[in-house]
Amino acid sequence: MRNIIRAGVCVAAIIGLLSSGVTAPRAAGALAIGACAAYGYAIDYPTVKEAKAAALEKCDGSCKQVVTTKQGCVAFAVDGRKPCGPHGFANAARLGAAQNTALKRCYKYGGKDCMIRAWICDGSG
User: Fold this and answer.
1) Is 50 exceeded by the pLDDT of residue 66?
2) CB-neighbour burial class of residue 2 (10 A; exposed 0-12, middle 13-18, buried 19+)
3) Where exactly are the structural domains of the chain?
4) CA distance 88 to 102
5) What is the rounded distance in angstroms from the CA atom of residue 19 to the CA atom of residue 4?
6) Adjacent-strand bridge partners of 54
7) Can you tell me the distance from the alpha carbon of 20 to that of 86, in angstroms, rounded to the nearest whole number?
8) What span, in angstroms and rounded, lies between the C-alpha atoms of 81 and 112?
9) CA distances, 94 to each of 12, 30, 35 (Å)
10) 3-class SS at 109?
11) Measuring CA to CA, how many Å separate 114 from each of 11, 24, 76, 108?
């Protein structure tokens, strides 16, 4: 008898979850990058295309490049003394890896005082 009651409770719980409107997680993000440290970002969009469009729309300058992620992280680094100069960006599964790679690229392209300007993580990143 107890097994029947437990099974009924489990079925009721599953039906309740399904009818409550639980949807698939939104797991697309984008970071738009522009001249002189300009950026725009978008997280938790259903598709990469929608995240890209939203990031470009939010850009506080003339962003021409967009780095996207699907359940990961993106980081953008600029030279703190020359924000219109060297920069770097990266996409990785985890935030630390994205930030480290973005900083390395900033230094590689001539940055002397590189710092993270912006970052996003989406989904499980």
Assistant:
1) yes
2) exposed
3) 25-121
4) 5
5) 22
6) none
7) 49
8) 8
9) 38, 15, 26
10) coil
11) 55, 38, 10, 10
Give dist(CA 51, CA 62) in Å, integer: 17
Which residue has better confidence, 125 or 29? 29
Distances (CA, A) of 88 to 7, 48, 55, 58, 80: 55, 21, 18, 20, 12
Percent of the chain with pLDDT over 70: 78
Order of strands, sheet of 87-92, starting from the edge strand that comes earlier in the sequence: 87-92, 73-79, 114-121
In this predicted model, what pLDDT tens digit does every residue of 25-62 receive, in sequence order?
Answer: 557 999 999 989 999 999 999 999 999 999 999 997 78
pLDDT of residue 16 exceeding 80, the answer is no
What are the structure tokens assigned to 52, written together? 């890209």
What secondary structure does DSSP assign to 37-105, as a single string? Answer: G-EEEEEEESSHHHHHHHHHHH-SS-EEEEEEEESSEEEEEEESS-TTS-EEEEEESSHHHHHHHHHHH
pTM: 0.76
Token pair for residue 114? 């590189």
Q: Are 103 and 114 in contact (CB under 8 A)?
A: yes
